[in-house]
Amino acid sequence: MVHWTNFLPLLGGIFSSVVVAAEISAQVVPGAYIVELEDNHDSASFYSTLGNTDVSVKHRMKLDYTLFKGTSFQLKNVSDVDAAAKRIANMAMVKQMWPVRVFKVPTVDVIWKGSDKGMAESALQKRQSANTSDTFSTHVMTQVDKLRAEGVTGQGVKIAVIDTGVDYNHPALGGCFGSGCLVSYGTDLVGDNYDGFNTPVPDPDPHDSCEGHGTHVSGIIAAQANPFGFTGAAPGVTLGAYRVFGCGGSAGNDVLIAAYNEAYEDGSDIITASIGGASGWTEDPWAVAVQRIVEAGVPCTVSAGNDGAEGIFYASTAANGKKVTAIASVDNTQSPMVLLNASYATSNSSTENFGWTEGSPNTWENVSLPLWAVNYNVNDTANGCDPYPDSTPDLSGYIVLIRRGSCTFVQKATNAAAKGAKYILFYNNVPGLISVSAAVTGIQGVGMVTAEQGAEWITLLAGGATVTVNIIDPASSPKYVTSEVNTASGGFLSTYTSWGPTWEVDVKPQLAAPGGLILSTYPLALGGYAVISGTSMACPLTAAVYALVAKVRGTFDPATIENLLSATSNPNLFHDGATAYPYLAPVAQQGSGLIQAYDAAHATTLLSVSSLSFNDTDHFIETTNFTIRNLGSEEVTYSLSNVVAATAYTLDPASIHPSVFPNELVPGSASLAFSEDKVTVPAGGLVAVTVSPTAPAGLEASRLPVYSGYIALNGTNGDSLSLPYLGVKGSLHDATVLDADFTYLTKSTDNDLNPVPANQTFTIPATNGTAPNGTVYPAFVISLALGSSLIRADVVPQNPLANATTVLGARTLGNVFGFPARYMPRGGWATEWDGTLEDGSYAPAGTYTLLIRALKIFGDASVKEEYETTSTVPFTIRYQ
Ligand SMILES: *[C@@H]1O[C@H](CO)[C@@H](O)[C@H](O)[C@H]1NC(C)=O
Ligand SMILES: *[C@@H]1O[C@H](CO)[C@@H](O)[C@H](O)[C@H]1NC(C)=O
Ligand SMILES: *[C@@H]1O[C@H](CO)[C@@H](O)[C@H](O)[C@H]1NC(C)=O
Ligand SMILES: *[C@@H]1O[C@H](CO)[C@@H](O)[C@H](O)[C@H]1NC(C)=O
Ligand SMILES: *[C@@H]1O[C@H](CO)[C@@H](O)[C@H](O)[C@H]1NC(C)=O
Ligand SMILES: *[C@@H]1O[C@H](CO)[C@@H](O)[C@H](O)[C@H]1NC(C)=O
Ligand SMILES: *[C@@H]1O[C@H](CO)[C@@H](O)[C@H](O)[C@H]1NC(C)=O
Ligand SMILES: *[C@@H]1O[C@H](CO)[C@@H](O)[C@H](O)[C@H]1NC(C)=O
Ligand SMILES: *[C@@H]1O[C@H](CO)[C@@H](O)[C@H](O)[C@H]1NC(C)=O
Ligand SMILES: *[C@@H]1O[C@H](CO)[C@@H](O)[C@H](O)[C@H]1NC(C)=O
């Protein structure tokens, strides 16, 4: 049996700075497979044919769909799992077979969650009046407000959300499930106990009973008016909820393929999923399944992924599928905050209100005490980090006011508690507010106020005033929504947004939308509302915009809407999380840039593509073309120009490994020659433009610079469009994919994955034996500097008389069970080997090396020279 272990946490230790700590986030379920069947077959005929053999399987998911006919199953008999798998793969009715992989619930940053209890009445009333203008910042950023002002709500459009389910009991999400409800259709494909590895237990109820992710996503699309004063971007749509995660688990790609096809067959107009895992291969089965649905006319938006830290070339599946619309994230221009209302008074003034955020511990119970501060310096960078002076009074009768910064909240709280403090209000040293945690003996309540509020109080204290703060128990305190301008990163690409392109230079992502700092609905049991950041939040907003644009234009054609949104988007400057730079962010990070719903809905110019890839140097596209259609009633002349974005080096200098974020960015992009620089298109007419790029000069091609930019089309009718393009200078084929130095033999019991020296003997259980505790199996680590579509692990006998065959020029007993591995992203993983071979038999006792071969990008799998190769040290296996 094989164990696929993600050794990300260990990489740091072993590889230190050598290797980017990339992870294989999609794990394989041992013995579980998806088959796609030939026409005229379905899962029933598959299982009945199988019933006549001695292969025993447990059914997982029926995949009897118009666009995907097949099934998934778990092989029951672990002792001959691979032989059985091979026999199934060879059945005449089986077209394709893939291992089941699982994807985790996306890791998003939950900034705040809570309830609407105590929400200010004013907000409640404001939202009740019909047709109040939409001022929700993410809607203003994307021009959703302008479409809403025209009365466009996506009325009647069916959007399927593939996620953790939806808490449809939420009053802002309709309060019910089924016909006539906001969440009008969908299903639970898995059940609460599904974890990705066990068998799904479907039921018809897609309630989001434990996670929350899908409820937040759904509110971004369709939330109805609520006490927080926002709505979803398309509150007129009806939602389909397809639940693919149980509680706390992962989702298999068989479940995801089933969910997509059910959503398609249930008549969804648009399907969205904020789910993914590192890949970069359009051939991934889930990506292929989604591509087919797009080709059948239903737009599919998928979040680009939250792995921006990994740098360029880290596209995620299924977003990386051909024709699938991958959505990048931009940070909100506003930082929404939900504050508790409290008041303070000075000796000689009236009472004033202020807002604060509760922290942990949280036992405030209507506290009314004067403030005390260790000093009155609002610029103190390490306020309260040292023990307080002997002159400090007994602080049990005060609320201690401490500035954030330098040392931990716990250290600050410990120093205050040493002088008897029970309550602490921190004041921030950056914009916004967070929920502070400082569990320290003696401290009953902590909270935070803004930097401005802290400064105001310090000024009063410094002036000799007594400032008495009255705090109402947070459990019953009134609260209100406010927001601060996000001066740090508003409108720029979120640093966490994953970068494309794919390994075959398909442009990814396509579009960008606000995903950082988003207020939306949350399950009632978890408070009801939350502020969350992730591409998971950008994706549903884009799906909602698809609905609005589709309603205005009267078409759901995926290419038409994607091309319109791409051409009308606003690209932005590169921002590294702290600072903006004077050049556009690469297309590999932002795609088209921030979508503009109104411009897309009303544009009278239609381009035939959403982006152009010039491929790499080996496959350089010398000339390509696109068309401009003028839907207006007057002739328009478009001036074409080339607006360059920063070029990003993929590899660190003199390294086979990609750089982590931010990749080194350099000026210099392609120059583009157009068939004409001014293109006149008659009313209702169509004109083709050819584009002949010249890759930028003077770059280190061996480091795989990715250049990009936008073809700007400025029309005499005032239209200003931009078409993203991207290319790679250098040869992806010649780039090193296998990190041979970190591909080696280890042992299954070593969590640190240290290499083992040559000539070790492993005594392992016999074919049908049970492994006693502490059995040490041989194991091996494979490290990929770049993605590889095919990785072999050949068992090479050292005995010249062994019955080996020759595969691709090497003597082998066959692959280790579970190999060849296909369509792997960059990163590393470890595999344990119990002696089972690819064909299900066991390798005889003997001495072996494992020959690891990774196919180069664009390599021909049938040619041995197209693989990069390394061998483990020899080792011996004996059976007990
Ligand atoms: C596994 O396969 C063997 C040989 O085909 C058979 O004897 C055994 O009963 C099977 N075990 C299970 C659990 O199916
Ligand atoms: C809202 O505004 C739109 C567009 O101006 C209008 O068609 C619609 O009737 C208005 N709805 C209400 C309830 O006033
Ligand atoms: C704190 O810093 C700000 C900005 O640098 C400055 O304007 C202010 O005078 C400083 N205040 C004190 C008390 O040093
Ligand atoms: C780049 O060229 C290769 C080889 O022809 C091809 O397989 C790949 O699809 C091309 N990429 C794009 C985006 O066209
Ligand atoms: C446009 O490009 C396509 C291939 O991408 C080619 O088949 C077609 O002939 C080209 N058309 C023009 C007008 O160059
Ligand atoms: C088109 O507009 C863009 C953006 O305003 C500008 O950068 C570019 O120079 C313009 N191109 C032409 C040819 O006017
Ligand atoms: C391992 O065994 C082989 C064959 O006996 C021998 O040639 C080699 O030197 C050994 N390697 C080590 C490191 O002991
Ligand atoms: C266990 O394996 C041994 C050797 O591979 C074989 O002789 C024996 O019949 C097997 N026993 C069972 C119960 O399958
Ligand atoms: C093996 O280890 C597991 C977990 O530590 C323990 O529960 C089990 O009793 C052990 N079995 C034997 C045979 O020692
Ligand atoms: C090779 O296979 C033959 C026939 O199955 C067998 O008799 C022989 O022992 C095998 N040789 C080795 C070295 O395993």
UniProtKB/TrEMBL annotation:
Catalytic residues as annotated in Swiss-Prot or TrEMBL: D163 (charge relay system), H213 (charge relay system), S536 (charge relay system)
Positions of the PA domain: 377-440
PANTHER family: PEPTIDASE S8 (PTHR43806), SERIN ENDOPEPTIDASE (PTHR43806:SF66)
Xref: Pfam families: fn3_5, PA, Peptidase_S8
Extent of the signal sequence: 1-21
Domain C5a peptidase/Subtilisin-like protease SBT2-like Fn3-like: 613-726
GO cellular component, one term: membrane
Secreted recorded as keyword: yes
Organism encoding this protein: Lentithecium fluviatile CBS 122367
GO biological process: proteolysis
Keyword GTP-binding part of the UniProt annotation: no
Domain (Peptidase S8/S53) ranges: 154-573
Name of protein: Subtilase
Recorded family membership: Belongs to the peptidase S8 family.
